[in-house]
Write a structure and sequence with these properties.
The chain has a domain of 36 residues. The chain is 41% helix and 16% strand. The protein has two helices and two strands, in the order H-E-E-H. A hairpin with a 5-residue loop joins strand 1 and strand 2. The radius of gyration is 16 Å and the shape is elongated.
């Protein structure tokens, strides 16, 4: 993480805690045998995984 010269060190800790809080609301979704992504709970289903494979990865299975 690159620290801005204009921000004091304490702000980095605050941003880090905000990121951790966001991460607690995410859940794993296995898209392929080797790919796992973090998604919100309402997107954690096979339909979203299929859409992700098709649109983001260019796979049609």
């Amino acid at each position: 993480m690159i620290q801005s010269l204009n921000k004091p060190k304490d702000d980095v800790r605050v941003e880090s805690s905000v990121q951790k809080a966001k991460g607690k609301k995410l859940y794993t979704l296995r898209v392929t045998n080797t790919t796992v992504i973090l998604v919100p709970l309402h997107k954690r289903n096979e339909e979203y995984a299929k859409e992700y494979r098709k649109n983001k990865m260019g796979l049609n299975y």
